[in-house]
Amino acid sequence: MSTLRTPRELVDNGLIAPEGLAGIERVAERYAIAISPAMADLIDKADPSDPIALQFVPQTAELATTPEEREDPIGDLAHSPVEGIVHRYPDRVLLKAVHVCPVYCRFCFRREMVGPQGLGTLIPDALDRAFAYIAEHSEIWEVILTGGDPLVLSPRRLSELMQRLAAIDHVKIVRFHTRVPVVEPERVDESLIAALKASGKTTYVALHANHPRELTPAARKACARLVDSGIVMLSQSVLLKGINDHPETLAALMRALVETRIKPYYLHHPDLAPGTSHFRLSLEEGRALVAGLRGRISGLCQPTYVLDIPGGYGKAVIAPDTVSERGGCYTISDFRGGEHAYPPQE
Ligand code: SF4
């Protein structure tokens, strides 16, 4: 089987009903579709609420855009000094060399930019300008390759990018954001891993995974190859209605990541991307779910719950409401809901 890319292929593979074809064709005119063989195999076709299907199989609900949704929900464009670079925080930049992904997630925060109709791959001149910007800005300590999914590039292209970064002294950390170890684990071979490393730089790989079933034996082996090679792995997940909005599911996901030697990093509140309101919870619901993880799972498994403030103002931590203050005295809530004065009142 190859990657499924058209509504007709989804019908032929039993992922949408034939009577739904016309509606999904309208979705496909606007948003890209791709379901890798590994993810198509993982979908339970007998379950209409399958959490893997909900992430990748398009629905006509995507045609409904709500007033608060926006094409650039986290404000990348406002912080893009040259094409391919987003410089939102002083010491780090995003380098978006490619806008293609091995799968197209239905809730994607960059869904207007990725895909065959999206921004494509940076042409050589634009890439030169992006590297010149990084070289000229000595405050840039970390370069985050994202997109799109940078691990769709060939090992040769990835190696060229790494060698160019290796030549810039002030860049110390290179971080790749990717879904490849989960959705195309067979890609993670020796040549790809070698291409992610460069002399004098530390490589991090942040894996995007949202449901514990994504950590299949093949995905765990791909991650083990990366970690065994000395690459540090982190995770990022999106809190999604119908997919992982349950304490047991989130706990199982975070435990599966830690068992795979991946430190849970961010749990994102879903962004205001067009046609994604069916995936969004309220902040209060999200906060209650994250509060439910305290005590339930090890500190090793706790992600940081964050919201990208619309407009490009960066990430804000949405902390559980555990501390209140009145008249100089604090009240702290424990994970069972018990309240304690701080400092203790004898
Ligand atoms: S892999 Fe990332 S960038 Fe690509 S569609 Fe999914 S969320 Fe969007």
Write the layout of secondary structure elements.
Layout: H1 7-12, H2 21-30, H3 37-42, H4 51-56, E1 85-89, E2 92-96, H5 124-136, E3 142-146, H6 155-166, E4 173-178, H7 180-183, H8 190-195, E5 202-208, H9 217-228, E6 232-238, H10 247-259, E7 263-268, H11 283-293, E8 304-308, E9 315-317, E10 323-326, E11 329-333, E12 339-342
Parallel strand pairs: 2-3, 3-4, 4-5, 5-6, 6-7, 7-8
Antiparallel strand pairs: 1-2, 8-9, 10-11, 11-12
Bound molecules: iron/sulfur cluster.
Iron/sulfur cluster is lined by residues 101, 104-105, 108, 110, 114, 148-149, 179, 208.
Describe, in plain words, how this protein is organized in 3D:
With 346 residues, this protein is of the alpha/beta class. The chain is 29% helix and 18% strand. The chain has a nine-stranded mixed β-sheet with strand order 1-2-3-4-5-6-7-8-9. It has a three-stranded antiparallel β-sheet with strand order 10-11-12, with no helix packed on it. A hairpin with a 5-residue loop joins strand 11 and strand 12. It starts with 6 loop residues before the first helix and ends with a strand. Bound molecules: iron/sulfur cluster.
**First-residue to last-residue Cα separation:** 69 Å
- What structural class should be given to the helix and strand makeup? alpha/beta
Proportion of helical residues:
25-40%
Shape: globular
Number of strands: 12
Identify low-pLDDT runs: none
Q: Which compounds are bound in this model?
A: iron/sulfur cluster
Mean pLDDT: 94
Number of helices: 11
In spatial order, strands of the major sheet run 1-2-3-4-5-6-7-8-9
Which sheet architecture does the biggest sheet show? Answer: 9 strands, mixed
Strand content: 15-25%
Strand/helix succession: HHHHEEHEHEHHEHEHEHEEEEE
Determine Rg (CA atoms, Å). Answer: 21 Å
